[in-house]
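Lab channel / #folding
Pinned by the channel admin:
"Please post every new chain as: sequence first, then the structure tokens as a reply. Keep commentary short and put observations after the output so the thread stays searchable."

First post following the new format, from NK:
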Amino acid sequence: MELEYVLPQDIERRSFEIIARELGEREIPDEVRPIVMRAIHTTADFDYAENMYFSEGAVDKALELISRGCTIVTDTNMAKSGINKAALAKYGCRAECFMADDDVAQAAKEQGITRAAASVDKAAKLGEPVIYVSGNAPTALVRICEHMERGSFRPELVIGMPVGFVNVVQSKEMLIASGADCIVARGRKGGSNVAAAVCNALMYMLGR
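Reply from TO:
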């Protein structure tokens, strides 16, 4: 097996060429293709060509929210760190993660809930358009569904990408069934890197 010589500035372009070739004839709608391809690029996992769920109009809504300047709340600092800062600044958006905040830790302890759930409660008090991004905690998705049921908080969009085994699949299906505007990686797969990749793909789509 011979190495392929690729200039550093061409590596990403070449990667996407390989992904497009290996996707072959799989039918992926044009409006979601850049998101699916970036998820594959981030993970080298072609299962994302099959497991990504997009509620009706979710991509258009996301693009509108970002173009107006919105707040993106993540459930991990890793996901926050992975979101392109230049793109955020370009569209007047900001990214927040409340997981390490003292008030979130205190609320979680007092209520006997996870910090991820308490972080959702804090996001509910922002009083501004929110894209909620979960790359780790299914309890965040469950808490969002509980808020929507009560009418106390409804994010404009939820990017549901938690990874793992305990309540991961269930929380994603609960989110989809709730009727929320969402982009979800169904099944066990996901992660903070994929969640950030979806955010970046959306912002890059605006810049095309």
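NK: The mean pLDDT is 95.
TO: also worth noting, The first helix runs from residue 11 to 23.
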